[in-house]
Amino acid sequence: MDTSNTLFQELKNYLSCNDDVTYFPVQVQDVECTFIYIRSIVDIVMLQEKIIRPLLLLNEPGTRPFMEVIHSDTLFPWPMKDEKDPLTAAEAITAGSAVLIVNSLPSCMIFTIPKYQKRTVQESQNEQVVIGPRESFIEDVDVNLSLLRHKIRHPELKVVRYQIGRYTKTPLYVVYLEGLCDKKLLQVLDRQFKNIDVDGVLGVSFISEQFKITRKTSFPQFQYTERPDSVASAVLEGRVGILLEGTPSAQIVPTTLFSLLQSSEDYYQSFIYASWIRMVRFVFALVSVLLPALYVSISTFQPEIIPTDLLLTIAAARENIPFTALVEALLMELTFEALREAGTRIPKPVGQTISIIGAIVIGQAAVSAGVVSAPMVIVVSITGIAAFIVPHYELGLSLRLLRFALLILGGTMGLIGVLAATFIIYSRLCSLNTFGTPYMQPFAPIVFSEWRDMLFRAPSYMMTRRPYAFHAKNKRRLRKK
After folding, report:
1. The pTM is what?
2. TM spans, by residue (predicted)?
């Protein structure tokens, strides 16, 4: 048995028990050839027009011998590469390539012609804007890269490829601007990605969980986004975008707490409106964490803080309530969390309606039945609305968890417990460091020059320098006139 038959048999053994693998024999002059591919993930039209048809033309009279032109650059109008390892060839076939085995040749030829089913580019569902681009990432990483290339048309935009997962072989791409991005950050990411050894990666969040820094806190240390303009803006600041095949979102590193509280729409509208909305967002982010705990702690342990008229109103509303304020708040908060989750899982046409009507009906029924008081329903409703203002989903989840911890401390230890827990949380945030960037910068450490893009947004002509937090090599981004 010659070498080519050995290669064919080994490749066939690797692909055994796969009924969707196609073996397509082709006779070219007096040479036997076999194409091996998976029909569902290969572009059949491209295979026939660019690869099989040039081979069949060699059967016409007067053509050169097949073995003389097989490796000619002019035979196939499509890139190919030779491969002797049958395992590598089998992996290429499962990734959407077609392999050509020629009798008596020691190697096979691999043609990369994948064709996967994918949806079109649509509007972002989780980061909707009124002003600005509407396009969002999809599951095809090549399309996502093209969206970024459309935003940043510069040769210094670099894309580095990794392959993660022993079985999934998932492509991962690191996107950055050479000359802006900190080389130390790239070295850390390169070392981390090369050390990841898992069976498979099915989402971009799988990657962040492999980094040791993410195991120290519940606060997100990667910024997730579905929007190409957000990734492009981050790359222009000297940060790094991480894109994964099969995931309609990207990660941005490093990140800070204040960047997670910013929306891409802040930069598409007037700086006056953007500053006002941003300050409202910060205030209600604090409200979503502290309001239930403050209400329970003050009404239970420090009622003298409340004005007399308001205190009498609260006392009258709670007169026939069988539960303590802490139990009452926990019941309402847990019910609200259940309604929120139900609204997410229920089909979209009815999910929003059911969640809104459910909240109204349950709240009214609970007050009428004397299970909870009306002020508590108001507090929980305001807290729930405030939680939706946070633009970053994972940060919102972290704040929701902290709300329960503060609520329990406020209901058991009073205002002192809430203040102590708040101080501990703030201290923890100040001690966090994501890829060399302080999590609370520019607030801790204080960098006054960057406050113009923190609690408010200054006009774009005033933001002449890139943020110091991200260690961009070139600090100047706008030339002064």
Report:
1. 0.84
2. 282-301, 360-389, 401-426
